[in-house]
Amino acid sequence: MVSLLDALRAHRILGIVRGSSPEAAETAALALLEEGVGLVEVSLTTPEAVRVIARLVAAAPAGCLVGAGTVVTDAEAEAVAEAGAVFAVSPGITSGIRRAAALGLPVAPGAYTPSEVYAALDLGAEAVKLFPASAGGPAYLKALLQPMPTVPFVPVGGVGLEEARAYLAGGAVAVGVGSPLVGDAASGGDLSALRRRAADFAAVAREFA
Question: Which domains does the chain have, with CATH numbers?
Answer without folding.
Answer: 4-207 (3.20.20.70)
